[in-house]
Design brief:
Blueprint: H1 3-11, E1 13-17, H2 25-34, E2 39-43, H3 49-59, E3 64-68, H4 73-82, E4 86-89, H5 94-103, E5 107-111, H6 114-122, E6 127-130, H7 133-136, H8 138-146, E7 153-156, H9 165-169, E8 177-179, H10 185-189, H11 193-208, E9 211-218, H12 222-236, E10 240-242, E11 246-249, E12 253-256, E13 265-271, H13 274-283, E14 288-295, E15 301-306, E16 313-319
Parallel strand pairs: 1-2, 1-8, 2-3, 3-4, 4-5, 5-6, 6-7, 9-12, 13-16
Antiparallel strand pairs: 9-13, 10-11, 11-12, 14-15, 15-16
Helix pairs in contact: 2-11, 3-4
């Protein structure tokens, strides 16, 4: 999988946008960035699509801009010339796919059945778009097709919204979902870019599902940690669970046996997708303490701290 597609996977959601007027390009790009999704698939359905991509790419270089509804090799050239970093098409056109593959341009063609996927494999792809996802069978179809095609990953688009987003993303063979609910054309036409920012932020919040996990308290010694944990247990009947470096009083309080990160301790937040949460925070300019990363037995990121403290507490993320 290309670096660009890995980056798309880190964002989790690809807003699919239709721009009818060139003056809509800049404020729409800003709205997506402000909402926490610096990525967009600009459809080549309108006359100003190429210019829109160019403006968005120049004004917001941090954005990952792609071109959608690409039907010809000529459109591929126009999109890449404008600044598009990836190509998406509604169906699998072997000529267009081969053209992109030969030029090293990431491309995800639309597939709807096993025959399409086998064509994609023959053309050297390991990621395809499933379109129109809900209409052709949704997540059940994707899981069924994933069985025999063990190396294929998917980017479903079509009929995906805030309610069913995590039904798709919870399947680890799906790298991201394309969606347009947060960039409804009526909102764009009305210039309601603040609303688009709000809906984008809501989509990201729904995807990441941040929840307070526990509060960590730095104790000076193991004996002090035992006393603190016992105090919580005595008050609230929390039960005590002792580990190598800390003692838990219930699920909400962790007492460190010796001072760790954070002047006062730490606060842990659980998230549905920790790697996407890290990408989201980095896009907001948050610095991550990469050295604090912990991985599970499968080599997947399980926990990581942010660099800055809040109120004397270090902040760290946990995979749910």
């Amino acid at each position: 999988m290309s670096n660009v597609l890995e980056q798309i996977g880190a964002y989790g959601i690809v807003p699919v946008v239709v721009i009818n007027k060139i003056e809509e390009a800049k404020p729409l790009a800003k709205a997506l960035c402000d909402g926490g999704l610096p990525v967009a698939e600009v459809t080549f359905r309108t006359a100003c699509a190429k210019e829109a991509i160019s403006i968005m790419a120049k004004e917001f270089p941090e954005m990952l801009i792609g071109a959608g509804t690409v039907l010809t090799t000529e459109q591929v050239d126009e999109a890449v010339e404008a600044g598009a970093k990836f190509i998406v098409s509604p169906g699998l056109n072997p000529k267009v796919v081969k053209y992109c593959v030969d030029k090293g341009i990431p491309v995800t063609p639309g597939c709807a059945n096993p025959s399409d996927i086998e064509q994609a494999i023959e053309l050297g792809l390991n990621v395809v778009k499933i379109f129109p996802a809900e209409a052709v069978g949704g997540i059940k179809l994707i899981k069924s097709m994933a069985g025999p095609y063990t190396n294929m990953k998917f980017m479903p688009t079509g009929g995906i919204n805030a309610k069913n987003l995590n039904d798709y993303l919870s399947f680890d063979r799906i790298i991201a979902c394309g969606g347009s609910w947060m960039v409804d054309p009526s909102l764009v036409a009305a210039g309601e870019f603040d609303k688009i920012t709000e809906m984008t932020r809501e989509a990201v919040t729904q995807m990441l599902g941040f929840e307070l996990a526990h509060v960590g308290i730095n104790a000076e010694s193991e004996a002090a940690a035992s006393e603190i944990a016992a105090g919580f247990d005595g008050l609230f009947n929390t039960s005590i669970k002792e580990g190598n470096s800390s003692i838990f009083a219930g699920k909400g309080i962790e007492v460190m046996k010796s001072p760790y990160l954070g002047a006062k301790g730490h606060i842990a937040y659980k998230t549905n997708y920790i790697e996407r949460a890290v990408a989201y925070l980095k896009a907001k300019g948050v610095k991550i303490n990469e050295e604090s990363a912990k991985y599970n037995a499968k080599g997947k990121l399980a926990a990581i701290y942010l660099e800055e403290e809040i109120g004397g507490f270090a902040i760290h993320l946990l995979q749910k």
